[in-house]
Design a protein that fits this description.
7-stranded mixed beta sheet, globular, 246 residues, 13 strands, Rossmann fold, alpha/beta, 6-stranded mixed beta sheet, 7 helices
Length: 246
């Protein structure tokens, strides 16, 4: 946990994530703070998003990808680059123009600056949807998640595959997280909905919402919106859902 206090006078930078990734790509050094809206924070090293060697568990899952792969929230392109080397067609999207610039420079052939809600602009349907890096929770709320799953259903071919990573928010005993869950529930929100921002080089990103799921919530949500949960693959502190389009 970071001991850096929140700087409420810091300037807001819309594409701070892009700045972080460009700085790391050019200088091979960049660390930033991820802060939750209750003040809890952690230090993050950008290096992890630029890995060139993937772990065995990650490769095991990526080997299931087939056809045209859509990498949502592709970041600097670690997974997209690995998939390209396997001969797969990959389209990577990220809402950060700066990150997409870095992904292209690193060799991602088809990288586009799009948000998840702009998927229809792709103009094609895909066979595999990849949501690594906890990106299964990108929509930020349960209502948004329902709309997102239906959007993915509409943008994919028959028998499409979804590979999505998330964490179980209730798998913790830390009081700072349990207190946040209670705060959410008192406000009528799901415990796994968090509001966070990045802090770096005297700048802060806008606040944004993210979602983490326990399986009891996620499984029926998937099936209600066009997907069948087929398998769960556990990783350290998280799990990957393998689902097929209904």
């Amino acid at each position: 946990m970071s001991d850096i206090p929140a700087d409420e006078t810091a300037l807001v930078e819309e594409d701070l994530w892009g700045r972080i990734c460009r700085d790391y790509y050019e200088q091979k050094a960049a660390s930033f703070v991820m802060r939750r809206d209750d003040g809890w924070a952690e230090d993050v090293e950008a290096q992890g998003f630029f890995r060139t060697e993937l772990g065995e568990a990650e490769v095991e899952v990526l080997q299931r990808a087939r056809g045209h792969v859509l990498d949502i929230g592709c970041g600097p392109g670690a997974d997209a680059l690995w998939l390209q080397k396997q001969g797969l067609k990959v389209t990577g999207i990220d809402c950060s123009p700066g990150v997409i610039e870095v992904a292209r420079q690193r060799g991602v052939i088809d990288a586009r600056a799009l948000s998840v809600w702009e998927l229809p602009q792709l103009g094609v349907k895909v066979d595999t949807v990849l949501l690594f890096g906890n990106n299964l929770g990108l929509p930020g709320s349960l209502d948004g998640m329902a709309d997102f799953l239906e959007l993915l259903r509409d943008q994919t071919n028959p028998d499409a595959l979804l590979l999505g990573q998330t964490m179980n928010p209730r798998a913790t005993t830390k009081e700072e997280h349990l207190a946040y869950h209670r705060r959410n529930e008192a406000a009528g929100r799901y415990c796994g909905q968090v509001r966070i921002r990045e802090e770096y080089a005297g700048r802060v990103s806008p606040w944004f919402d993210w979602l983490f799921f326990e399986g009891e919530i996620l499984a029926p949500l998937l099936s209600a919106h066009g997907w069948q949960w087929r398998e769960t693959i556990s990783r350290e502190h998280s799990y990957i859902v393998v689902a097929n389009k209904l």
